[in-house]
Design a protein that fits this description.
Layout: E1 10-12, E2 15-21, H1 37-54, E3 64-73, E4 81-91, E5 95-104, E6 110-122, E7 127-128, H2 133-142
Antiparallel strand pairs: 1-2, 2-4, 3-6, 4-5, 5-6, 6-7
Length: about 140
């Protein structure tokens, strides 16, 4: 049996789209997704994209640290299916941006936008690392730029 179409991650209109069904635990006492959970949604999509880009499979394969995270809230989300859209935007010397949209699956309404700045990082030496030409090329190819 294959996954339903809505449960499969992939590219759509220049975004890497990660489907997610909002869980009861994501909600606050008011019955909508708590504002702090949006950053967890970003993390989930960022990890899926990174693993797809690099072939990683576990936490040790994530070779960056988060330096900054921001989120703009547009609409409430309840316990419903959503799509978390992510792509890499600006690649600098040692850091780059993941940008996001969260959309409600049923009506396509934009619920949030965001940006997370990450720094490429070597966990063994505990130092930042320059973004090499190979990673830049893989990002361009992966995002079909």
């Amino acid at each position: 049996m294959s996954e339903p179409r809505h449960a499969t991650s992939g590219w759509k209109d220049g975004w890497y789209v990660v489907p997610y069904d909002v869980l009861f635990r994501d909600l606050d006492a008011f019955g909508h997704v708590n504002n702090a959970v949006y950053l967890t949604f970003f993390e989930w999509a960022r990890t899926r994209l990174w693993f797809e880009l690099t072939g990683g499979v576990n936490a040790h394969d994530i070779s960056f640290i988060v330096a900054r995270a921001e989120c703009d809230f547009r609409a409430q989300i309840a316990m419903e299916p959503i799509e978390i859209l992510v792509r890499i935007s600006e690649l600098r010397t040692t850091s780059f941006d993941f940008v996001y949209e969260i959309r409600r699956t049923n009506d396509g309404e934009l619920a949030a936008t965001g940006r997370v700045v990450v720094v490429l990082y070597d966990w063994k030496t505990k130092t930042k690392v320059a973004i090499g030409q190979d990673l830049r090329r893989r990002v361009r190819e992966f995002q079909r730029e």
